[in-house]
Amino acid sequence: HIGTAAIFFFGFIFWHNIFVIISFQYNLTKELKWSFYYKLFMIILQYFAGLFLFWDMIFVCYIIDPYSNKEIFQIGVNLIGFCQYLCTASYCLFWISYGYDYYVAMNLADDQKRK
Description:
Order of helices and strands: HHH
Radius of gyration: 19 Å
Strand content: under 5%
Number of strands: 0
Distance between the termini: 54 Å
Structural class: mainly alpha
Helix content: over 70%
Number of helices: 3
């Protein structure tokens, strides 16, 4: 389950978000510039949560002994869940910003029609 989610989220969706940032025309308006910064913050959050999740998985699966270090193992398992929720929330919040971008683009198009 976690392996498939890692491939899907950190493989496909993360790179989709990276390409959105690369091709984003943030210099058209001030609002789009703030949207760019928001997207960039979400990508950084996704990256560090995914990286922490990866190393925490290695720690919990291969390094820590669940019998002799039960408390640390439980904390590691809880951190895996927290990182998954953090990644999922940041992906959803990244996509929600498309609605804001559409709103700004429509206002920009209306302003250009009026001129």
